Amino acid sequence: MSSSANGGPTPPSVGIVLISHSAALARAAAEMAAALAGPEVTIRPAGGTDDGSMGTSIDLIGTAVREADSGGGVLVLMDMGSSVLTAKTLLEDLDDDDAPAVRLADAPFLEGAVAAAVLASTGADLQTVAESAEQAWSMRKL
Amino acid sequence: MIFDTQRAIAWINRIAELVRADVERLTTLDTAIGDGDHGANLDRGMTAAVDALAEKEPETPGKVLITAGRGLVSKTGGASGPLYGSGFRAAGKAMRDEGDVVALSDALEAMLRAIEELGGAHHEDKTMVDAFAPAVAAFQQAAGATADMHTAAVAAAEAAEAGLAATVPLQARKGRASYLGPRSVGHEDPGAASTVLIFRALADVTAE
């Protein structure tokens, strides 16, 4: 159990799962978000099918969600297409009592992942982390 | 005729056979406007569904469809996995054990609703819904008129085929094909094509 600087218990931070059709893309996005957010945030990639080809796997995503949860819930970001459908399907399956609190972010994949990870590193709750990811749509580049 | 456990298993097995026989055609359709994996993906998903049923035979037709749906969701890999998988699970939950034509009709309607709800596709978006919705409507109409399961399933398969043909002039509004804009016109939708196989399989297994 970790503790904060003043010695009190730290509230569990929000975990993040990144779903992509590509295992390499999910891993790299997780690596980049972790680099910008610091080591306190648990970020799990869930890319590709369970045999490593292009696509999505509900089993890989389910495992990543359970691993990412430390009690504060999990924010899931999807790249596009079937990632979204698979994530929505998983959400319907997670209705038992001991399932982690999970939210799907309607957010751009990489920008949303970084925004969510940075907010999660501050100890923000699931709702706040989700809003941060979804606000990433409005961050213009030029 | 009763849509019992054995007939439900036969339906899933027949879909798998028809998908396997048409892998190349589905892939060719999907290569034209999609990412070229619909045939292989659905073949993998249906194989998982068949294997799950062979491993432990479910006790009711509803449980057959739920088990098949779970296999599809778990192994397909593309968008058709969650769509058809959630659809079969919804059909299974709606399926009543007496297995008469009305029970099957209600199950098919539940399947359509689940697919529409998950995918968010509407009429003429150039998706499987364009074959599925008319198929379910035709099944319901024929079931009401004749109460014969095979007649209803044949009508559904014919309506699905007409729905598939009607996707050709449409511009895609969902999935990868939607990025192509007007260039998605002039091709059959691969999801609508696989929906035809689902209803053709139902017609086949209700023939006797």
From TrEMBL, chain A:
UniProtKB keywords: Transferase
Domain PTS EIIA type-4 span(s) in chain numbering: 13-142
UniProt keyword Flavoprotein present: no
Keyword Nucleotide-binding applies: no
PANTHER family reported for this sequence: PEP-DEPENDENT DIHYDROXYACETONE KINASE, PHOSPHORYL DONOR SUBUNIT DHAM
Annotated catalysed reactions: dihydroxyacetone + phosphoenolpyruvate = dihydroxyacetone phosphate + pyruvate
Protein name: phosphoenolpyruvate--glycerone phosphotransferase
SUPFAM superfamilies (UniProt xref): PTS system fructose IIA component-like
InterPro entries membership: DhaM (IPR039643), DhaM_N (IPR012844), PTS_EIIA_man-typ (IPR004701), PTS_EIIA_man-typ_sf (IPR036662)
Known EC number: 2.7.1.121
Function field: Component of the dihydroxyacetone kinase complex, which is responsible for the phosphoenolpyruvate (PEP)-dependent phosphorylation of dihydroxyacetone. DhaM serves as the phosphoryl donor. Is phosphorylated by phosphoenolpyruvate in an EI- and HPr-dependent reaction, and a phosphorelay system on histidine residues finally leads to phosphoryl transfer to DhaL and dihydroxyacetone.
Subunit structure: Homodimer. The dihydroxyacetone kinase complex is composed of a homodimer of DhaM, a homodimer of DhaK and the subunit DhaL.
Organism: Phytoactinopolyspora alkaliphila
Example GO biological process: glycerol catabolic process
Entry GO MF terms: phosphoenolpyruvate-glycerone phosphotransferase activity
GO cellular component, one term: membrane
TrEMBL record, chain B:
GO-annotated molecular function: glycerone kinase activity
Coiled-coil ranges per UniProt: none
Lineage: Bacteria, Bacillati, Actinomycetota, Actinomycetes, Jiangellales
Name used for this protein in its record: Dihydroxyacetone kinase subunit L
One GO term of the biological process aspect: glycerol catabolic process
Keywords from the named record: Kinase, Transferase
SMART domains per UniProt: Dak2 (SM01120)
GO cellular component, one term: cytosol
PROSITE patterns xrefs: DHAL
InterPro entries documented for this protein: DhaK_L_YcgS, DhaL_dom, DhaL_dom_sf, Dihydroxyacetone_Kinase
Species of origin: Phytoactinopolyspora alkaliphila
Domain of life assignment: Bacteria
Residue ranges of every copy of the DhaL domain listed in the record: 6-204
